[in-house]
Amino acid sequence: MRLLYLIICCWIMPCCLLAENIAGIWKGTLTQGPGGCYPRYFLELQIDVTNDQVTGRAYDYYDKTHFVKMSFTGRYNTRTRRLVLIEEQVLQADIPEDCAACIKTYDLTYSLEGAEEVLQGDWKGVMLGKRLPCPPGKIVLKRATVADFPEETAQNDTLIRLQRQLHIQPREKEVIKTITLNSPDVKIELYDNGEIDHDTVTVFINGKLLLYRQMLTDRPLTMNVHAIAGTEYELVMYADNLGEIPPNTALMMVTAGARKIEVFLTSSEQKSAAVRFVYKPD
């Protein structure tokens, strides 16, 4: 009985690990049959797996200035190593006028070729807005560590307009800490560090304005980032003032999965505190 239990465990565990391993960045090529805009494209998949739910973003592009960004959902069979992805929505498109975006279904198989992880298979689809079939083709992807199209940090319309008009005096930047995380969903909270003395801060992540002239108190200023594996994110805290007790100080709490990290930040009129973090799946 114990022998049977061990055999079952050994059979199940690789499948479970494999299901986790499809999460991440995959890059390669997508071909299209005659009648398509181009016979060959580049393709990047950013795959998330949460509680067996497969979601993510797809970028197919001729070059990095001409691309289509899609959201997708899917399912992965750990026994057959088959991954089926279905594109749902065009999130962004910048392609020639005589080309049409294809809403695609991917039928891929995972394999390990030497030290390289590979997803390859077929795709088919329909033209956006026309419901005409797209010439199908083949896909070959390999796991990558850095995205060509890093996931953008969410920024509302008010902050977008504000950042266009914002003129902040450049300051020296001091990197306080670099944090490695094992979960893509990151919550960042900022509190006043000590006595509340009316410190206000402006915060950027990868150059995007996320907080503007917000006061630090005992209640958190909260930001959420969905991180892409291998992409470095940099938070910069710019002191709008020094409060009643200089310098401008904050306690930052970073939560990613079950892990919580505390970082103490100090910014002045000459220097801004920065923290870098990167998501690396286990």
Order of helices and strands: HEEEEEEEEHEEEEEEEEE
Based on CA atoms alone, the radius of gyration comes out at 23 Å
What count of domains describes the coordinates? 2
Strand content: over 45%
The CATH architecture term of the largest domain is Beta Barrel
Report, as a whole number of angstroms, the end-to-end distance: 32 Å
- Gross morphology: elongated
The assigned structural class equals mainly beta
Number of strands: 17
Main sheet overview: 8 strands, antiparallel, barrel
Residue ranges: pLDDT <50 for 5 or more in a row?
1-20
Instruction: Please state how the strands of the largest beta sheet are arranged side by side.
Output: 1-2-3-4-5-6-7-8
Which CATH C-level class of the largest domain is it? Mainly Beta
Descriptive overview:
The longest helix is centred in the N-terminal third of the chain and has 20 residues, at 2-21. The strands form 3 sheets. An 8-stranded antiparallel β-barrel has the order 1-2-3-4-5-6-7-8. Strands 9-17-14-11-12 form a 5-stranded mixed β-sheet. A 4-stranded antiparallel β-sheet has the order 13-10-15-16, with no helix packed on it. β4 (66-77) and β5 form a beta hairpin. It has 2 domains: 8-144, Lipocalin; 157-279, Immunoglobulin-like (Sandwich). The protein is mainly beta and 282 residues long. The protein has helices at 2-21, 157-165; strands at residues 24-31, 40-50, 53-63, 66-77, 82-94, 102-113, 116-127, 133-144, 172-181, 185-192, 200-205, 208-215, 221-226, 232-239, 248-256, 259-267, 271-279. The chain is built from 2 helices and 17 strands. Mean pLDDT is 85; it is low at 1-20.
